[in-house]
Amino acid sequence: MSAVLPKSAKVVVIGGGVAGCSVAYHLAKYGWKDTILLERDQLTSGTTWHAAGLVGQLGASATITRLRKYSLNLYKELEKKTGLSTGLKQNGAITVASTPERLQELLRQATAAQLFDVNVESVNKQRIKELYPVINDDDILGGVYMPEDGQADPIGVTNVLAKAAKMEGAQIFEKTPVEKILVKDKKIVGVQTKFGKIDCEYVVIATGMWSRQIGEDIGVSIPLYPNEHFYIITEPLDKLPKNLPVLRDYNSCLYLKEDAGKMLVGIFEPNAKPAFKDKGVVPLDFSFGEFPDDFDHFEPYLEKSFQRLPMLETAGIRKFFSGPESFTPDTQYLLGETPEVNNLFTCCGFNSIGIASSGGAGRVTAEWMINGYMNEDLFSLDIKRFQKFHSSKKFIMERVTETLGDLYGMHWPYKQHNTSRNQRLLPYHEELKKEGACFGVSGEYERPMWYAKSNEKAEYKYSFDYQNWYPSVEFETKNTITNVGLFELSPFSKYEIKGENAHSELQRICTANIKNEIGRSTYTQMLNEGGGIETDLTVICIDKNHFRIISSAATRTHDKAHILKHLSPNLEFKDITDDLVCLGIFGPKSRNLISKISNDDFSNETFKFGYGKFVTLGSKKIWAQRLSYVGELGFELYIENKDAKEIYQLIIEEGKNHNLSHCGSHAMDTMRMESGFLHWGHDISPEENQYEAGLNFAISYKKETNFIGKESLLKIKDQKLNRRFIILSLKDSKPGTPLLLHEEPIYLEDKIIGRTTSGNYSFNYKKNLSFGYVSSIHSNEELSKMNLYIEVAKQKLPALVEIAPLKDKRARLL
């Protein structure tokens, strides 16, 4: 290090790879000039230097597609700004499909990409041969072509970002390892380096494969771990055409890139090899590091490359490469503020697609830091989607053997991971299993998704069309509305707040007027300062100065972090998610059933909708509340773990007299859509406000407290909505034809006016349902008389507007 290290800064970015340089550039560009980037060795020395340099825009999700498109445009822009070369070559990219299911997946991705004006063409076999004349297309059914995609030099991209960051005022120091991140009262105060301390307000961990252990040193969970990643570079090939598009063959786990007359052949294979397996730690001095050859591991995929590109069979190998690439539990990035330490952000976990992703990831990280929130739907990338256990070595080292393969594996709807399962079992897990439960992961829990019927195997058969669990859901949903269903709700996040100021604090962080009466519940949202929806939850007054919050299972860490960030420290806060199981008894016979196993009064006169109270079931005291996410009469029962199995068995035994059925999460999700209930993370997020989502009934301007986000809401309160929530169904509604999911374009005639957010088939109403948002000058009533379409896998399907939810809300009020 030649320059003198500053004593203080606004931000310290740790890590001089492509991601760290992107964050530093965007922070400085957006006004935080006092930004320092520290690199322990040289820029790119971690994993950036050996990246294949593919710059593709099409991602497995719409969010990733949006960030990748930004990255491509940024790199072109900064080449001009800096005068340096990124080595960007927009020679296009082709992804081929050799099975009908893969072609369906690609066409769905291409359809979603239209929402962001990404140029994607669906191509047939003949067109693929024209674009890639040396390919063996015998088994190819079709594919997609991205003419503006291509490749870049990873070191060139990083240097361009680094120079642009310096031009904006950021400082970069190489050969300056950070020895410790300094934290006081759960907030960043600085970093300790080899050359001294730097006081700072913010730190960004952009340290790639080292991030998990850096976080672990200060009690922060960063769930990623490196695998060994393999590719070869051939000798020059005489007959290899120049400027071939990048070729991806997911079914063969291959990517192929022509570069200066040579071919790079890389793989993303199932059953990957964790790196540094013996010690489970990445050495701090692993700069520009490689692993020994493992040709036996690579050879089966090399043979597949011969089949796809026959000319490779006689090619010499100039370089066999094996090096580390870090992966996360779900192959999505790790962005955002950590829940454990305020002002500590992450920008890592790029799962081998860091070059294509880092431009966009750096932008949103900088905006997140400067604004203090995001008004984009980034929960799928937010580090707070994970819990503490996800970063344990036992969990993460096993999971990444699967997730590297997921990158090129089929992205099936409702797909469940096979590794690192059974983290937390319910007290009556074996009983549910005997009932035919097919389990999925919900937070840390194994939770029934559906129950197999007629001695069928409780196992998913994945498809983009008809689902093998549809007969189960048909039975479960129909039985719930005619008799009674038992739903497993234990993974729901549960928090308790106690203290003299508990009510006033909840009034400040919630939009609704929180009922301060024992037994009363309030449905509400919490917002960020920009008015975006950060949480969707129910608050129940358990006792004087004692409230319980219930929210989604998937948002446990996220919601807890949001609440604690805005809650006064003098209140008692406790996460009780794992202390109580929760069973839902829903349906017209639910009152009769529960009345048979309790001496308490469950009549409508004494136990109204939206109320809760302590009751006795058998000999056990539990908390019951009359709420229902499935839109039917029913009760949520909160039971201590030690009593859970006994009460479960009590319900099952009496349930035989009321035609009770076990019901899974798919049935609940279907029924909540029939009732018009929104789901945070799909239908609502920080990207939406309550007016757009039709949730303005959960806003109270009359309460004395100025709740967070109120000023932003008041600015839009009387304005015409730019976009709004809508419920659609297909004119030709059949189960799974097609399978409606989310991120499907909504058309008015031939113009895209919105996108879908949720989809399900309702057997109760025989309709293929979709939730979404549209931007239109026409009201929903007017749209109902126009030609609307939902596009799925490049097929436009006529759709109808549902003016109101299918289910009458009176069903749950009886």
Automatic annotation (TrEMBL):
Report the top EC class in one word.
oxidoreductase
Whether Oxidoreductase counts among this entry's keywords is: yes
What keywords does the record list, in alphabetical order? Oxidoreductase
Report the EC code(s) recorded for this entry. Answer: 1.5.8.3
* Segments forming domain Aminomethyltransferase C-terminal: 723-805
Provide the GCVT N-terminal domain boundaries. Answer: 429-703
Extract one GO molecular function annotation from the record. Answer: sarcosine dehydrogenase activity
Q: Which InterPro entries match?
A: FAD-dep_OxRdtase, FAD/NAD-bd_sf, FAO_M, GcvT/YgfZ/DmdA, GcvT/YgfZ_C, GcvT_C, GCVT_N, TrmE/GcvT-like
Question: Its domain of life?
Answer: Bacteria
Where does the record place the FAD dependent oxidoreductase central domain? 371-424
Keyword hit for Oxidoreductase: yes
The FAD dependent oxidoreductase domain, residue ranges: 10-368
UniProt record similarity statement = Belongs to the GcvT family.
Name assigned to this protein = Sarcosine dehydrogenase
Q: What is the lineage of its organism?
A: Bacteria, Pseudomonadati, Pseudomonadota, Alphaproteobacteria, Candidatus Pelagibacterales
